[in-house]
Write a structure and sequence with these properties.
With 348 residues, this protein is of the alpha/beta class. It contains twelve helices and twelve strands. Strand 7 and strand 8 form a beta hairpin.
Length: 348
């Protein structure tokens, strides 16, 4: 049985092909298109599927798309659409960004974003570039496979726990956002994953890190690693400020207060401008509060699971300094980080 996994909803577009539980091939789209992260995480790029990565996986197995039995897509639009669509319809303004945002939507682009995802099965069978169409040919428009929309953070959790060396472990996923969740806590035993809790939008440590990344003159959803490195040049001058911003509520919950970066830390740095001490201190304070708060959350997760083992995934789990802090200061004795902790790993 062949199962094709696809990540395409935001960025780090990727594909994985599994045969009877064994990985045959996995690849990120950027390796073929030479576009870093495959694409930018914007609503009007959601339709772009990782065709070249998929073609590579099919070629490695010497099969065609019509030979695939199951396709998993690491985002479930119906977690949002069930409450937002009426009779299978949603309204899309001609100029979304120039139109008022209905109260039920988070963004004027949400209808376009979600409709692209819902139509991904047909896009997969009919939209491959001309020069690689051979392995996609003769597949029915609606697919000869069974399609599965998989909740984003469940895909992260499975990518961390199932390949790990553990038969039992606590699982922590943390990123910018999925459908609603930004952080999840789970317990994995054998091939079962049980969700223990989650933190939902708008409270997201990942998005907070993205906002500061942009304020410091870097590209958000790409250059966060530069902020992690920049932190080594600063001091915790703003740590107390961030302690007020990120509040632990108990039961694994946390809240992030809304605030204006410009009012709190001065004008945003523009790309190419010199760094000032306040920039170093802002990066250092952000990194310090991330480590501090995550270790606190790990103490709660350890009490809930009583497991010595921890698996990590999600874009924030690419922060290797934070991971080292978890290893050294959390109650867990063994920590396994999914190497493709970002969205690319959800294809697995």
């Amino acid at each position: 049985m062949y199962t094709l996994g696809i990540n395409a909803v935001y960025h780090d577009s990727a594909a994985t092909l599994v045969k009877d539980g064994v990985v045959v091939a996995a690849a990120e789209e950027e390796r073929f298109t030479r576009k870093k992260h495959g694409k930018r995480p914007v609503p009007f790029s959601t339709y772009e599927l990782p065709y070249f990565a998929i073609d590579y996986c099919l070629k490695a197995a010497e099969i065609h798309l019509r030979d695939v039995d199951h396709v998993g897509y690491s985002y479930d639009p119906y977690l949002l659409l069930d409450k937002l669509s009426h009779n299978g319809k949603i309204e899309l303004p001609i100029e979304p960004s120039a139109s008022p945002v209905p109260v039920e939507w988070e963004s004027p682009w949400d209808p376009l974003f979600l409709s692209y995802i819902v139509n991904a099965p047909r896009q997969l069978t009919s939209g491959a570039p001309h020069h690689i169409q051979a392995r996609f040919a003769d597949t029915p428009l609606t697919g000869s496979f069974q399609w599965h929309f998989v909740e984003h953070h469940l895909a992260h959790a499975a990518s961390a726990f199932l390949p790990s060396p553990f038969d039992e472990a606590a699982i922590f996923t943390i990123d910018g956002r999925g459908e609603r969740a930004t952080t999840t806590y789970s317990h994995g035993i054998c091939n079962q994953i049980t969700r223990l809790g989650q933190v939902n939008m708008p409270h997201s440590m990942g998005i907070l890190y993205e906002k500061v990344t942009e304020h410091l003159g870097f590209l958000h959803s790409s250059d966060e690693y530069k902020v992690m490195a920049l932190a080594s040049f600063g001091s915790p001058a703003f740590l107390d400020f961030f302690r007020e911003v990120i509040q632990i509520q108990g039961d694994g919950q946390y809240t992030i207060a809304d605030f204006d970066l410009g009012e709190s830390f001065g004008p945003a740095r523009k790309k190419g401008e010199p760094f000032e001490q306040r920039h170093y201190d802002l990066a250092h304070s952000l990194q310090a509060i991330l480590e501090e708060r995550v270790v606190q959350l790990m103490e709660w997760l350890h009490r809930e699971t009583r497991s010595p083992n921890l698996c990590l995934a999600g874009g924030v789990a690419l922060n290797c300094v934070m991971n080292a802090r978890i290893r050294d200061r959390s109650p867990f004795s063994k920590v396994w980080v999914q190497p493709a902790a970002g969205d690319a790993g959800t294809a697995l």
